[in-house]
Write a structure and sequence with these properties.
Layout lengths: L31 H12 L4 H8 L3 H9 L1 H14 L10 H19 L4 E2 H18 L12 H10 L7 E2 L7 H18 L6 E10 L11 E9 L9 E4 L18 E4 L10 H20 L5 E5 L16 E5 L5 H4 L1 H26 L2 H7 L9 H21 L2 H13 L3 H7 L23 H13 L11 H8 L6 H14 L2 H6 L4 H17 L6 H40 L10 H24 L9
Parallel strand pairs: 1-2, 3-7, 5-6, 7-8
Antiparallel strand pairs: 3-4, 4-5
Helix pairs in contact: 1-4, 2-3, 4-5, 5-6, 6-18, 11-14, 11-16, 11-17, 16-17, 20-21, 21-22
Length: 616
């Protein structure tokens, strides 16, 4: 029997030397801002391998970024337009677009002094998310429930601190509305004001080309002002986006039948409250007092909209400004009671009459129609309806802002004294008789009658669908309603189409304006630095700086862009020359020459004007 022999040696599978743990692979995620910069470098033909080495990622990551360049650019465009801090990892483009539109909606509500509650914001956000999904052609978007956690993060991310989002249903404050009328007689008695000297102003949007059940075409904001006696209806003030529209090209804008004010966005009056007060209200009221031999001593009631400047409280020694309690506009404010609706309804009536005349003109129809027989076939009737639609479009092309303003002024002038006095009845409860003007006889123009007249005028228009106009359709046109989600999406599309490359160049925010705003902030901090309540001062400055953060970023980006352009321009004018000497004795001189060249380039950048960027 053969011997078994020695057993085989054990196989050592370990590598020689001390054992070392296997290094973990580090995953690096790039923000959208970094990805956008990489795309810019790729467009400059920078090599992908160099970019991968610079950012510490695989070359395949750079290729993926290049493939998704369009999506990344769209994300940056939307994020930049919201004015919020950069969102690092946000892949739901529908939600990003929704949040942008929701910010615009909440800002509009705040400017209109409309309270919003948590429930309504969540519901509006869900409707907006669905509308955006449909607009983007996404049939199955990612689920979005508008949870309380999302709403909290949304408000923090967008720094929404001045918008009232409460837990209860937003509604008019009826308690404050009951307490204010007894308070007003005390003010009038103390200041010896008569109802000739008590005024109220309110703003309202007007879609001056809007038809029943149709999307609006263009909007203006109109400021309506009357006194309590109804003896003074001040000249209307109109806020438009253009300083001088084409319809007024041959006219002096200071001699119109309205005060013409200009704002980048015709939705809001907030930036113009002081200029309206100084240039429109005070001169007009002073002239009225002189004509009526009334002392120039005025009490002006305004709603509690956040857009009004607090400086109005002591802007003029002869004008006392009193703000109505918050959320009481629909109950107390005279202009909001019935006057504005009356004027808008009368404006609609005046607008429909020439529309009917134009679409029903036999001469116009004869020029467009080839049918001259007396008997009309079904095809002839269809042709006539088509011709009327053509005439309808032609009418809207010639119906310009000047004609709309003229109709509005006519409607305002026709408002009766009795109607004005009737609208003030809630505010003037308890006013002594000696403070009131004599009773006015005459019929009060009710909103119901004005709406009926507008409906009848609309039904008389021969174009299709006008005959079916209802009172609800008219009310939809004349009211200042909540902006629907569909209108928000459509309005955003219109603004993006109008805000193309050339338009953005024309409407850039000037760098000097941004710098001036920052200087004003520094002055504000300095003026209030002596506040003995240090806690109050610290809270204020912290919130102020947080609010200005988007503009700080704009300022820094402008500076960086300016310096980069200056360096690029310098090298373009003074291209560096290759060194002429190669020996070691001249090597040091070449280094000195290069250092001097760079020093000169940087000096030229520092000497450049900081206000050179045109804007962001």
């Amino acid at each position: 029997m053969a011997s078994a022999g020695p057993p085989p040696p054990e196989r050592n599978l370990s590598l020689p030397g001390p054992s070392r743990p296997k290094p973990k692979k580090t995953l690096r995620s790039l923000s959208y801002e970094v990805k956008y910069k990489i795309i810019q470098e790729l467009e400059k033909r920078t090599r992908q391998v160099d970019l991968a080495r610079q950012h510490g990622v695989n070359e395949s990551t750079i290729r993926t970024i290049k493939k998704d360049a369009a999506k990344i650019k769209e994300h940056m465009k939307i994020t930049k337009s919201t004015g919020t801090s950069m969102i690092k990892y946000f892949h739901n483009q529908v939600l990003l677009k929704t949040e942008k539109l929701l910010v615009s909606y909440l800002v509009r509500q705040a400017r209109r002094n409309m309270a919003v509650d948590t429930r309504s914001v969540k519901e509006y956000a869900r409707e907006l998310y669905a509308a955006v999904s449909r607009k983007m052609g996404i049939t199955e978007p990612k689920p979005f429930n508008a949870s309380s956690g999302w709403l909290q993060r949304f408000t923090m991310r967008n720094k929404i601190t001045n918008i009232n989002i409460g837990g209860e249903e937003a509604s008019a404050d009826r308690v404050a509305a009951r307490e204010f009328p007894p308070f007003l007689p005390e003010i009038m008695e103390e200041g010896q004001y008569t109802d000739d000297q008590v005024f109220n102003m309110d703003e309202s949007g007007l879609f001056w080309k809007k038809l029943p059940s149709k999307t609006f075409v263009e909007r203006i904001t109109v400021l309506f002002t009357t006194n309590a006696s109804g003896t003074c209806k001040l000249k209307l003030s109109v806020i438009h986006t253009a300083r001088k529209p084409h319809a007024y090209k041959s006219m002096d804008m200071t001699k119109l039948n309205v005060h013409w004010l200009t704002a980048h966005n015709a939705w809001t009056f907030s930036t113009l409250s002081l200029s309206w007060f100084d240039d429109c209200f005070v001169p007009d009221v002073k002239k009225f007092c002189e004509q009526q031999n009334v002392p120039f001593k005025i009490l002006l009631l305004l709603d509690n909209a956040p857009g009004y400047s607090p400086l109005l409280l002591d802007c003029h020694p002869n004008v006392k400004v009193v703000f109505l309690p918050p959320n009481t506009t629909s109950i107390l404010q005279p202009m909001d009671q019935e006057l504005i609706c009356n004027v808008k309804a009368a404006f609609s009536t005046k607008k429909f009459k020439p529309l009917n005349d134009y679409t029903n003109t036999r001469e116009e129809l004869r020029n467009l129609s080839d049918t001259t027989t007396d008997s009309k076939s079904e095809d002839d009737e269809d042709q006539q309806l088509a011709e009327q639609q053509v005439l309808l479009k032609q009418f809207w092309r010639i119906f310009n802002i000047k004609k709309a303003v003229d109709f509005l002024v006519e409607a305002w002038d026709q408002l009766s004294v009795a109607t004005v006095r009737h609208a003030w009845r809630h505010v003037l409860q308890g006013i002594p008789a000696v403070r009131q003007s004599q009773s006015v006889t005459g019929e009060v123009q009710t909103v119901a009658v004005a709406v009926d007249l507008a409906r009848e005028a609309a039904q008389s228009v021969t174009a299709a669908s006008f005959s079916e106009t209802t009172n609800d359709d008219i009310l939809e046109v004349i009211r200042d309603p909540d902006v629907t989600t569909a209108e928000m999406v459509d309005d955003d599309d219109v603004s993006e189409e109008a805000g193309g490359a050339s338009s953005q160049e024309e409407h850039r925010l000037a760098h000097s304006n941004v710098r001036g705003a920052i200087e004003c902030i520094e002055k504000v901090k300095l003026l209030l630095s002596d506040d003995p309540d240090t806690n109050r001062y610290e809270i204020f400055t912290t919130q102020l700086l947080q609010t200005m953060e988007p503009y700080f970023k704009v300022y820094h980006d402008n500076i960086n862009t300016s310096h980069q352009q200056s360096i690029t321009e310098f090298f373009a004018r003074n291209p560096p020359q290759p060194a002429q000497a190669s020996d070691s004795d001249r090597g040091r001189d070449s280094e000195d020459d290069f250092e001097g060249f760079v020093r000169e380039a940087l000096t030229s950048v520092d000497d450049s004007d900081g206000d050179s960027p045109e804007g962001q």
